Amino acid sequence: MAIADIVSYSHLAPSDIEALGAELDAIRREIEQSRGARDARYIHRSIALQRALDVASRMAILLSPSRTGRWLGIGGLAASKCIENMELGHNIGHGQWDWMNDPEVHSATWEWDMVGLSSQWRYAHNYRHHVFTNVLGLDDDIGWDVLRVTRDQPWHWRHLFQPAQSLLLAATFEWGIALYGLAAAYKRTQDAENKATATADFATKIGRQILKDYVVFPALAGRRWRQVLGAMTIANVLRNLWTHVVIVCGHFPDGAEKFTPESIESETRSDWYLRQMLGSANIDAGPALAFATGNLCYQIEHHLFPDLPSNRYREIAPRVRALCDKYDLPYSTGSLVRQFLLAQRTVVKLSLPDRLLTATSDDAPETASERRFASHTPTVPGDGLRTALRTLRARRRRLFPSAGA
């Protein structure tokens, strides 16, 4: 099932884990000390680009006499919302730009362009997800209480429908994020008055967003309000689909491991770093795709350094990968298509009860524990985790050519 002994699973000695943590701390210090004007220019230019694209796209939707122009407006507005949600809302909400002391670009003041409330999301995401990444019962991102993505989640008959549920969640992702934040706000307190306040704030944000996108803007179109209302709906759905794709590619592919609560009972900072490296997955991306994902193609680096500026992940990534080589650790990455298909395979496969699956609950592509190595003797003393996993895969292919489910 999930990993209970991270040290054993990692094939690293405690001294090696502490050395790894020290090297990652050094990277953090270097980036923190070098933050400056170019980083500020990056975020201000990103904001200016997003706002210009938003205005131009809305004007195209409202005023273009041709269907082609309106569709360009829809595509542009969807792109604008993706940039705002991921490169701006998500990263600013992490405090990546708080060091500038700019009241406009600050985690405490930025409210993003979606129905969810930023303050509720920040607690759910920055605390429950990033502090307890992939820890069962503590990280709400493990399937978002909707999808079964590890065998540690008991199978229920409703999971038979989860492939369809996954599609519905993708199309309505902003609403899923909103409810995710509200649920975390409820978990944060037992006080009924605080819960009522959270609900009221949640409803207010939803009301403002619906008024902006689905009432005021269509009303500006006069008799064409139905067309504009449809355009807004399509733009929001396109945004939802893209953000869903990016998020599942960083959290659900093979290699994004899960952990038991016992595994973090005496966790050090270096242990936390190691858990982030084992529990996250990247997307291979060039500069354009990286920007389109809010730099969340660098999910491993983001989980290691969630509050460092997102534009720095590209330069951090080769150094993290070099550390993986040095300590013989896996660096889970792949193309967007590959990572997405792996995530969907997990969603479809785990819709079935375990008795219909062939791989063991300790050694499956989506679910693993240190017990997967119980019958494995390293071919060379001192083999690390990456080598051990390669040996296991080769052995499994020889013994069970059709295994893997």
Automatic annotation (TrEMBL):
GO terms for cellular component: membrane. One of its GO terms (molecular function) is acyl-CoA 6-desaturase activity. Residues 361-385 are annotated as: Disordered. Keywords: Oxidoreductase. Residues 81-333 form the Fatty acid desaturase domain. It comes from the Bacteria. Pfam families: FA_desaturase (PF00487). The keyword Oxidoreductase applies. GO terms for biological process: lipid biosynthetic process. Its EC number is 1.14.19.3. InterPro entries: FA_desaturase_dom, Fatty_acid_desaturase. This is Linoleoyl-CoA desaturase. It comes from Mycolicibacterium hippocampi.
